[in-house]
């Protein structure tokens, strides 16, 4: 059948169906049949519904478009996008709650900078105190070692209690140095934590922290450098 004859036949069918629709006050459905040819009818064959169709009104105009059913792959893609949308929405809500909690602690980035400085100063004070303790124990150790050396020079045996005391003092110095090093090791994590806090506060308050990053260096190990004061 030629395209012209097909068109004429389709037109006659539309006119006839439109008349029938007007008589019965129903809708006309346009769909593709098994051969991919456009067809019109008062209903869509059940086995073709999943391919999608159009609903035509009494005037022949499209009043509704029913898209084809999604494939398994399309459904998986749709569901993945929806899951991602939900995840991002949940993260945004959690971030909002965190921001609100942060603003209850700090109204300005400078407030967080001050807290960071104070915490670093506390660490510096702890280290200074422990260094003082080391100086005291080292003085006691020197006295005991001198006492033991004098005994050796005079040929006397060093008493067990003296040797024990020297050993305990050396162990004490080692223990205090370990406490100092452990406290110093808290600094990088502390600085990282507050850097995130300060940067976030700058973002949500639209205010810039003054004198940040800190100009003073972090507390350093005794190897090569001494601890410097934080302004």
What report would you give on this structure?
The protein is α+β, with helices and mostly antiparallel strands and 231 residues long. The protein has five helices and four strands. The chain has helices spanning 3-24, 72-105, 109-153, 160-184, 186-205; strands at residues 28-32, 38-41, 53-56, 62-66. It has a four-stranded antiparallel sheet with strand order 2-1-3-4, covered by helices on one side. Helix 3 packs antiparallel against helix 4 and helix 3 (109-153) packs antiparallel against helix 5 (186-205). The longest helix is centred in the middle third of the chain and has 45 residues, at 109-153. The model is unreliable at 4-8, 17-24 and 223-231 (pLDDT under 50).
Secondary-structure topology with pairs:
Elements (H helix, E strand, L loop, with lengths): L2 H22 L3 E5 L5 E4 L11 E4 L5 E5 L5 H34 L3 H45 L6 H25 L1 H20 L26
């Amino acid at each position: 059948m030629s395209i012209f004859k097909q068109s004429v036949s389709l037109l006659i069918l539309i006119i006839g169906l439109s008349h029938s629709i007007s008589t019965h006050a129903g809708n006309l459905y346009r769909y593709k049949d098994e051969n991919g040819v456009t067809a019109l009818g008062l209903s869509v064959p059940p086995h073709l519904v999943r391919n999608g169709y159009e609903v035509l009104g009494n005037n022949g105009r499209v009043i509704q478009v029913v898209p084809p059913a999604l494939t398994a792959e399309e459904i998986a893609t749709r569901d993945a996008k929806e899951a991602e949308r939900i995840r991002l929405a949940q993260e945004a809500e959690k971030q909002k709650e965190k921001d609100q909690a942060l603003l209850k602690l700090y109204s300005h980035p400078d407030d967080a900078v001050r807290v960071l400085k104070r915490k670093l100063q506390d660490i510096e004070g702890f280290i200074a105190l422990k260094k003082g303790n080391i100086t005291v124990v080292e003085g006691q150790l020197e006295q005991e070692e001198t006492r033991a050396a004098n005994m050796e020079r005079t040929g006397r045996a060093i008493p067990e209690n003296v040797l024990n005391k020297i050993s305990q003092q050396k162990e004490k110095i080692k223990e205090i140095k370990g406490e100092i090093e452990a406290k110093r090791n808290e600094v990088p994590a502390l600085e990282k934590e507050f850097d995130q806090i300060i940067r976030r506060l700058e973002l949500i308050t639209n205010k810039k922290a003054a004198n940040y990053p800190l100009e003073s260096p972090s507390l350093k190990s005794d190897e090569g450098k001494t601890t410097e004061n934080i302004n």
